[in-house]
Amino acid sequence: MAEELPNVNITQGSQKKVNPLVGFYRQPKIYVKLPSKGEFYPEDALDKSETGDYPVFAMTAKDELLLKTPDALLSGQSTVEVIKSCVPAITNPWKMPTIDVDAVLIAIRIATYGETMDVFSTCSQCKEENKYGIELTKHLNVAQSVEYPTEIQVEELIVHLKPYNYKQLTETNVKVMEQQRLFNIVNDEKLSDAEKLEKFGKSFSNLTEMTVEAIVGCIERIDAPTGSTNDKEYIREFINNTSKEVFQSISNVLNDMKEKTTIPEQKVKCEKCEHEYSMPVTLDQSNFFADRS
Asked: Where are the domains of the chain?
């Protein structure tokens, strides 16, 4: 009689379940080229594309709700979460260079609502509210073509530059808002003239320090005939003690880059009284992502 073989239960390895709705997930609406060309990112902040094109998805309902949360908007957390959702190649938006921020936000706006953004403005003459269409694609193309100067020569010095990251920008903006609140306190009628003068002087001093820190933060290294340094303390001492001309030369380059990567003021005409004026277009998330059209 043949020996009976033992029963062996063979269990196949557990297979990961696939959501049958995967095919209905968002797909990229457009592709964007980063003004930075992918430079200035730490290794863990960007999944670099070989072609330089990065897919951009439309916002989800959750993303839109995030942009309506005041505290998260102020801290920058809402913007970070939306960028991670809509441009997943940017894995750590806090570390993205500021020269990429506006281009990415414009791309997300286009992917979500289309190429034209309606902006509402009140005429300064007749107080009529007008609606104007802004062609975002044109401004995105300009932002994508900007070249960031990594070094400039100022007299005998070679100043090596790098843009602020989004974390640094957000922290600076919060500090500026705090100083603006102090200015409001200065106008408090309950304060004496001496108290107002003291608070105004303190606030002005703080704003000056923030301007210096913003410039120091964008300087990676300075080469001089006597040597080079990337020590932030040395660079800060230099900025505080250099001539007005040298300070202004560096500041002008940084301000010029900021202007090139943002949407410029638009020349518009009031439909009611035909008054012509310049209308600022901000990328403030609370209104930039509001679909009023």
From this structure: 25-146+263-288, 151-260
